[in-house]
Amino acid sequence: MSRKREAEELLLSLQEEIFELGDQLFELPELGFREESTSQLIAGYLDRAGIDHEDGIAMTGIRATIGSGDYHIGLVTDLDAIAVSDNGKTIPFHSCGHSSQNTIMLAVMRVLHELEKRGKLGCKVTYLGAPAEEYIELEYRQKLVEQGKIRYYSGKQNMIRDGYFDGIDCVFCTHAMGDLTKKFDFASVLSGFLTKKVTFKGVAAHSGASPFLGKNALHGANLFMQAVSFLYEQFPYEAGIQIHPIITNGGVAMNVIPDTVVVESYVRALTNETLFSAEEKFDRAAKACAQALGLECEIESTVGYMPLRQSDALNEIVYRSLLDVCDKSDILTGTVSGASGDMGDVGFLIPTIQLGYAGYEGRIHSNHFVITDKKLTYLDTAKAILLSVLELIENPELRMRNENFQQDKQTYLDSWLSMK
Q1: Which of 315, 311, 326 is nearest to 182 (CA)?
Q2: pLDDT band for position 87 (50/70/90)?
Q3: Measured between alpha carbons, how far is 218 from 261 in angstroms, rounded to an integer?
Q4: Rounded to an integer, what distance in angstroms lies between the CA atom of residue 310 and that of residue 281?
Q5: Is residue 186 classed as helix, strand or coil in its secondary structure?
Q6: If I label 136, which of 8, 60, 80, 188 is the partner at 20 to 30 A Cα–Cα?
Q7: pLDDT band at 403 (very low <50, low <70, confident <90, very high)
């Protein structure tokens, strides 16, 4: 029996176990850097499978490595849930599919571990469960930074800095896809982003008796919102520029001219070059609008995530594996998305793919999301990843790695994560 056929049969034999794990993880949503119970559940699963692991990485992350050899494959997941509104109450909920990511990759690890015990692996494979992919609760994360518990707002950014991706030659990850007209989303492109906080400062005055004695900071914010809408014409459509500012502080009382108004926004783009160009134009517009009305303007920038450009060579392997799972007509190719994720940071350093999968009903990032086709979401997706890993193991000539990893990592730390 071929190794791939043996792996498929092992995966199928674990169906009920995998489905149960998926249900348990889905019912245990926790926000970023709070995933203690999720990490404990995964640790228990690894313990029962006899797979050694390390936890407490970047607070709540978890790592497990099996096999040995001169090639090292990473299976990377997100541990956190998203905050959603449910009948007026904000709750954590797995409506981004992160629970299913872990189910898929743990199923792959389980099968590969069985192959290893039979002497049929011949490669090193590491599962990395990363906390805090969703870019939310920034005040909470800033407190964690101040307490010295983390350095950056993203789990993977901390793990990169602390060396947990050092020595990994390529990375597989998965994610629930947005377009449910197909079964799988292959070779998609994700945007990168920065966050901006613009504070317009004026002079308070009585809005009825003497508004002319004040300087209305809200006028500056409104003028700036209009200026931002005109920036789109300065970029081609394919640049993927997305800027949607909101006013988070618009004044204190109706009868007082606002002296402090805050505008916050993501700045998104499909390449780093375009992202930094958009940021420059964004800042210039804010300063000019403030100057036009005699206001002061302060701009605070926070690093977000890099654009995700997937490995063509790795995607070719995954595509061949997908054809063993579904028909060509079931595969969506080359989606360009305005969404972002910290897999973009990993992909800057290491050949990376992110395979999208369906099998659910509802809307991502809403309180209407449920896994309805467990075979597709868990088993079929795990099979595609599993066959791709085995393809690399059996064909050393297909293996890829970033020979300049250390140099690129230093650039990433110095130029991206150090940006203020």
Answers
A1: 326
A2: confident
A3: 6
A4: 28
A5: strand
A6: 188
A7: very high
The whole-angstrom separation of Cα 333 and Cα 337 is 12
The stretch 187-215 carries a mean pLDDT of 95
Amino acid occupying residue 12: L
CB 324 within 8 A of CB 225: no
C-alpha dihedral sign at 183, 98, 22, 54: positive
Residue 111 structure tokens: 């099968």
DSSP H helices, 14-97, are 15-26, 36-49
Q: What angle do CA 233, 238, 244 make, to 5 degrees?
A: 55
- Of 147, 190, 138, 164, nearest to 32 by C-alpha is 138
Phi-psi region of 246 (alpha: psi -120 to 50; beta: other; left: phi over 0): beta
- Token output for 140: 């909470």
pLDDT tens across 89-115, in order?
Answer: 999 999 999 999 999 999 999 999 999
SS3 sequence of 246-304: EEEECCCCCCECCCEEEEEEEEEECCHHHHHHHHHHHHHHHHHHHHHCCCEEEEEEEEC
Give Cα separations from 60 to 40, 43, 202 (angstroms).
9, 11, 43
Q: Which of 282, 306, 153, 160 is nearest to 229 (CA)?
A: 282
**For range 334-360, the mean pLDDT:** 95
pLDDT tops 80 at residue 420: no
Gyration radius (Cα) of the chain, Å: 23
With tokens 């990473």, the residue in question is 74
Residue 189: the pLDDT is 92
pLDDT value of position 418: 84
